Amino acid sequence: MGNLLLATILLPLAGAVLAFGPRRGARAVALAATVAALAMAGTLVFRYPVGASGEFAVFDAAWFGADSSIDIRLSVGLDGLSLWLFGLTALLSLTAVLVGWESIRQQASAYYRLLLVLETGMLGVFAARDIILFYVFFEFTLIPLFFLIGIWGSSQRRHAAIKFFLFTLAGSVLALLGLLAIVLWDHYHSPAGQMTFSIPRLTENLAAAPIPTGVQLWIFAALFAGFAIKVPMFPLHTWLPLAHVEAPAAGSVLLAGVLLKIGSYGFVRFVLPMLPDATAICAPWLLGLSVVGIVYAALVALAQSDIKRLVAYSSISHMGFCMLGLFALNPLGIQGGVLQMVNHGLATGGLFAIVGMIYERYHTRAIADLGGLAKRTPRLAAFMLLMTLSSIGLPGLGGFVGEFLILLGMFQRAWTAAPPAGALPLRVISVLALSGVVLGAWYMLGLVRRVFFGPLREPKRDPAEPPVADLSAREVMALTPLAVFIVWIGLQPSFFLDRMSPTLDHLTGEAQRREVEVTADERGWTQMDGRAQTTLANGWHAPRDEGRGISANHALRPSGRATLAFPLSHPRPSAFIRGSTLLRTTTTAPLTPTRTKP
Amino acid sequence: MTTETLHLLMPEIVLAIAAVTIYVAGAFVASRAVWSWIGLGASAIAAAVMLIQQPQPAGPLAGDALGQLIRWLALGVGAMLVLTASRSRAPDVPEYLGSLLLTVVGLMLVAEANELILLFLGLELIAIPTYLLLYLGRHDAAAEESAAKYFFLSVLASALLLYGFSFLYGTTGSTDLGAIAARLAQPAAGQDTLAGLARIAMVFVFAGLGFKIAAVPLHFYAPDVYQGTTHLNAALLSVVPKAAGLVALVRIGLLMPGLESHAWRIALALAVVTMTYANVLALWQYNLREGREVDNVDELAGLGQTSPVVAGAIAVCLFSLAGVPPLAGFWGKLGVFAAALDVQPAAGEPGGLRIWFIALAVIGVLNAAIAAAYYLRVVGVMYFRLPLASPKSEGGRGARFAAIACAVLVVLLGLASGPLFEACRRASPNVSAQANGAATVRERHDWPVSNTAPLRSRLGFSLAAWSSFPSSRWCCKMNVPQTRNPGPRRRPFILCPRNEREPPP
Question: Which of A509, A538, A562 is the last residue of a domain?
Answer without folding.
Answer: A509
